[in-house]
Design a protein that fits this description.
By secondary structure, this protein is mostly helical. It has helices at about 1-10, 20-30, 45-60, 65-75, 80-85, 95-100, 105-110, 115-125, 130-140, 145-170.
Amino acid sequence: MLAENIYEEDTGGLSLGKSHPELFLSMMEGLGFLPRDFAHVRLLPASRTYRAWLDKMSRHRQWVMGAAALTIFVEGSVKDRKELLEPSKPKSAEDIEKIIQSHPLVQHHGLSPDAMDLIRAHQLVEAGHRHAAYNMVVNYTTPALQRSVLATLQTTLSFWLRYRDAVAEACGIKKS
């Protein structure tokens, strides 16, 4: 599952034939950003800290730590619990286009549905990935590492919350 996910992210070989970073940049072009706008980004301090943590976890000697941080936390969503109870089935082209049409970037930011291939790719290949990611981490985390994996997820959340708040502050969004 992990190798399949990496292959898809790097090549798009299981969906639309383009890497997910390429698809992201195409989506951003649809919003008026050029690829060069993302080439030399200066990260906020909280962003650098969060990125350094993710890099550290991706190189952790216990692979399950990186897998937990990257597949459970970074690629996870608020829908994970539901997905684990009711794994999604492959979606039809019509189902995917309905998702595209209701996406906030289309609805609220005027992004053309034509620029949404990253979302299409995710919809084409994500069925069951959440379940597989959780199974991989749960089934291959030894009892001796369980507390460490949970601590990794907690630390990842802490860094992400600081990152999120710093980005919101930089955008002028105040906490209510």
